[in-house]
Backbone:
């Protein structure tokens, strides 16, 4: 089995974190505007908004790591599958080439061997394209 290196991890963007913090601030402002409260109650609103924002940030970070791990695993499995399929098709391609090089083969056999070789090469090209 071939050893392959996992693809580079995607760079994290700051947008989800900014969106979470902004949504927490908006929730706090909405709570302030809907609730007529004294100063200590406002602090409770502020800390609850920050607390909810932090929980959302940690949850997003957790799921982002989980998704990245799944993507890396899938890429490794696809790489192994591509390698195995190419390994399974190579004997058929070699036999088709052997038939094509045979001078004594009849015309229909040569056409069939050429068709088989072309089909296998198309599959190999398709597997190369899935790598990108």
Residues:
């Amino acid at each position: 089995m071939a050893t392959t290196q996992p693809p580079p991890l995607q760079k994290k963007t700051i947008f989800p974190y900014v969106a979470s913090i902004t949504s927490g601030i908006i929730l706090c402002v909405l709570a302030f505007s809907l609730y007529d409260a004294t100063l200590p109650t406002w602090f409770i609103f502020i800390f609850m908004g920050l607390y909810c924002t932090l929980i959302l940030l940690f949850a997003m970070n957790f799921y982002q790591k989980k998704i990245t791990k799944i993507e890396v695993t899938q890429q490794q499995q696809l790489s192994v599958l591509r390698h195995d399929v190419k390994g399974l098709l190579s004997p058929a391609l070699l036999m088709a080439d052997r038939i094509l090089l045979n001078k004594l083969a009849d015309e229909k056999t040569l056409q069939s061997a050429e068709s088989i070789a072309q089909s296998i090469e198309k599959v190999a090209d398709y597997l190369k394209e899935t790598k990108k």
User: Anything to note?
Assistant: The helical segments are 15-34, 39-101, 107-131. The mean pLDDT is 79. The CA atoms of residues 95 and 115 lie 12 Å apart. The chain has one domain: 15-131.
